[in-house]
Each structure stands twice: as structure tokens, then as C-alpha cells.
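Example for tutorial group B:
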């Protein structure tokens, strides 16, 4: 193949890469997307947050997704010890979308990728990045290998790394660093539900807390399939013996709420295990590149923040690159790293406090405080940059403070 020269090389055709590519196309910036996989392909991360609907709408990708009639996600349900905590995205502190979707990612990602191709974006599937070099001005030369083993180079002024779990630039540029979160793992599969309850119950995304640090996700799709998976400390996942299918079947027995519903459902594929999934990097950008989504930071799936951070960072990177290519000055540390990490830090607090038990105390305390619930609901909807929300602005201390007040109330009551 002949070498290619573009303004922006985008690595990865997932949600982050598609949002970035669509924005660049809409603003007259030339880009090339390379994707190692062939679509449609399976990937985990099937629960979205309302915040990402803003990104799809802004980049012209919303209508193609609406046409797919994915399962509506109007909130989220958390269960523990017979207590139910329902969050309704229509009742949240921050204005914004009051719904999103539960999506089979193979279909969702393929829809986005087809749409950007339809818009005229140059996308190559089955093309793998093997090396990259930057000059002193940030211009890059990236070597690509095709499925047939042929190589070619892409010269670009910027690279957006939206490679997700592939983490291409972090690997090639030695940007990886250990996550500060506890080493958790996940085991998951899909089932074709033949005994799905009728009505709302059969559509609800639920997080069933079977132990303080272990929970089961249940994500029904509109096609009749359901994603199920356990998350917990790596040693807990490894304590179950046998094949992955045998392990997951044994784990389902500890869910009082879902065991009867799921015990006879056939797994559509051998369950996958991801060990110690939380990731971090030394920096989110460098001269000539930006890391987005899971190629930068991945926290934990408990609040479904993955796709939202992917689309938020992909869109933000595309906007800043467009400004710079148009001759405007961009402060990448202030406008990208500090902005993205502000949201990441909010969610990191909620993930950490979930596993300390403090956030669970708030979720399952009765009676509920409606104001606190609306403020937390806005966080769970992905609006983690809204400083008018005390549970965003003061996230570092407020969750701990409210949990301490609950402890004090319980002591007085006892």
C-alpha cells in the first residue's frame, strides 16, 4: 500500500474514535481511522450513561443509534440484603438527558463505525499499528500492518489513541503506570433469556450486591439477550474451580434475587475473565498525541463510566486539535488533562468509596434523602463536571461525611 498523509490519525474505531472522527469530519479536518479488529466484534462495556448522549448528538451520530431501538436505560437499580435502591435519571440535580441505552457493543460499535464511513471518513479494519515515531514538532510517522502482512506508513500532525484495551501508545511510548484502585477482576457472558419477566422488571439494568465487595450485573438487551457478570476481588474470582462456565454457574447460586431467573439459561459463549482490569497512565497527552477512553484510564465497571469517558475524551481531543490546526493556541494541560482528570477523579472517589462501603451505606440507608439522591444520581448519569453539584465539587469528603453521619444515626438508634 502507498503511504498516507492526513491531519489526524485515529487508532481505534470504537465509540471514542468514532466520535472524534465524526467531529473532525464535520469541521473539515482530514483523518484516517485504523482498527485492528474486524467489525462487528464483541467487547465489554454495554451500559451507557446519559452524558454520552450529548456527544452523539453534537457529532451527528445520534439518529443512527436511535434507529437501532436499543433497550432504554432510564436509571439503574442496586440491590443488597432485600433493600432496593432505584436511581431515576429523570430525577437528578444536573439538567441533561434523562435516558440512554443498554447495548450489545458489537451492534452499537458497528453502527457508529458504519455511520462515520457513510459520512466519508477513511476507516481501515484489520490494520494494526506496529510502531510510531514523532519528530520535534509532534509530526508522526506510524507503521501499519495489514491482515495480509503488508506494511505502510501514515504521516499525521496528530494522533488520537482510542485503542481502548489495546492501549497502543501507552505500550509503545512506555506510558503505563499501576492503578491506585484495588485489584478486581470480572467474569461475564451473555444468555438468551427464555424466562425473562414481562414488563419493566425484564428490562432493568441491575447491580446485585451479593457481598460487600462482590456484585453481579444484569443488563437486558432489546434483542432478548442479557449480559451477566460478576465483579469482585481477584482472589474471590479465582476461588471458584473448574471451567469459566462452571465458575460462573457456581457464582450465580449466591444471588438470591437472580439465581432462579438465570440458573437454566444457556451461556451464549464461554465466559470471559478480565483480571486486574483497572489501568492508568503517566500522562494523557504529549507533543502530537492524545490518549482517550480506556487507552488512558479505566476505573471500574460498577457505575458504567467507561463509554462516557471514551466519548467525552474523544470529543474533547478532537475539539482541541481542530483549534490548534486552525491556528488557535491550546493549553493541553489545562484544557485536556485537568478537564478529563477532574471527571475521572470524581468517579474514582465513587468507585473507591463503593468498595470501602461508605457509598453503599448511603445507597441503602432508609429513609432515603431525596436531595442527596438527586445529587448522586447526576454523578451516576455522567455529569461529573458540574460544580453546582456538591457531590461533584466536594466529592473527596462529602461521601465520607454523609456515611459518618449515617453511622452516628445508627449508633443512636441502637
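The residue assignment follows.
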Amino acid at each position: 500500500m502507498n503511504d498516507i498523509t492526513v491531519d489526524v490519525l485515529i487508532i481505534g474505531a470504537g465509540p471514542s474514535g468514532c466520535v472524534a472522527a465524526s467531529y473532525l469530519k464535520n469541521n473539515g479536518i482530514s483523518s484516517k481511522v485504523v482498527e485492528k479488529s474486524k467489525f462487528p466484534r464483541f467487547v465489554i462495556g454495554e451500559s451507557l450513561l446519559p452524558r454520552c448522549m450529548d456527544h452523539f448528538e453534537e457529532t451527528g451520530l445520534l439518529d443512527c443509534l436511535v434507529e437501532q431501538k436499543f433497550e432504554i436505560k432510564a436509571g439503574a437499580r442496586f440491590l443488597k440484603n432485600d433493600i432496593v435502591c432505584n436511581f431515576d435519571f429523570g430525577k437528578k440535580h444536573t439538567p441533561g438527558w434523562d435516558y440512554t441505552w443498554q447495548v450489545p457493543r458489537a451492534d452499537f460499535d458497528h453502527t457508529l463505525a458504519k455511520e462515520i464511513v457513510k459520512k466519508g471518513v477513511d476507516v481501515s479494519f484489520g490494520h494494526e499499528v506496529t510502531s510510531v515515531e514523532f519528530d520535534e514538532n509532534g509530526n508522526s510517522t506510524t507503521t501499519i500492518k495489514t491482515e495480509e502482512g503488508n506494511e505502510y506508513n501514515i504521516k499525521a500532525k496528530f494522533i488520537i489513541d482510542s485503542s481502548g484495551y489495546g492501549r497502543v501508545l501507552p505500550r509503545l511510548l512506555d506510558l503505563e503506570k499501576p492503578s491506585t484502585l484495588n485489584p478486581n477482576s470480572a467474569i461475564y457472558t451473555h444468555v438468551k433469556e427464555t424466562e425473562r419477566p414481562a414488563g419493566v422488571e425484564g428490562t432493568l439494568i441491575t447491580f446485585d450486591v451479593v457481598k460487600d465487595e462482590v456484585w453481579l450485573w444484569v443488563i437486558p438487551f432489546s434483542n432478548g439477550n442479557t449480559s451477566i457478570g460478576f465483579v469482585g476481588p481477584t482472589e474471590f474470582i479465582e476461588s471458584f474451580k473448574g471451567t469459566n462456565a462452571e465458575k460462573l454457574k457456581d457464582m450465580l447460586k449466591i444471588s438470591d434475587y437472580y439465581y432462579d431467573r438465570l440458573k437454566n439459561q444457556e451461556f451464549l459463549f464461554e465466559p470471559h475473565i478480565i483480571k486486574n482490569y483497572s489501568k492508568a497512565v503517566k500522562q494523557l497527552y504529549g507533543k502530537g498525541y492524545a490518549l482517550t477512553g480506556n487507552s488512558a484510564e479505566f476505573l471500574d465497571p460498577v457505575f458504567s463510566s467507561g463509554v462516557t469517558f471514551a466519548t467525552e475524551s474523544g470529543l474533547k481531543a478532537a475539539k482541541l486539535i481542530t483549534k490548534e490546526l486552525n491556528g488557535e493556541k491550546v493549553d493541553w494541560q489545562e484544557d485536556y488533562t485537568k478537564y478529563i482528570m477532574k471527571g475521572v477523579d470524581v468517579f474514582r472517589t465513587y468507585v473507591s468509596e463503593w468498595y470501602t462501603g461508605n457509598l453503599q451505606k448511603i445507597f441503602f440507608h432508609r429513609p432515603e434523602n431525596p436531595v442527596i439522591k438527586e445529587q448522586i444520581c447526576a454523578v451516576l448519569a455522567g455529569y461529573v463536571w458540574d460544580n453546582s453539584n456538591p457531590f461533584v465539587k466536594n466529592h473527596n469528603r462529602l461521601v465520607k461525611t454523609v456515611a459518618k453521619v449515617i453511622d452516628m444515626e445508627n449508633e443512636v438508634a441502637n
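Residues 184-275 form a domain with the D-Amino Acid Oxidase; Chain A, domain 2 fold (CATH 3.30.9.100). Compare this with the pattern of hydrophobic and polar residues in the output above.
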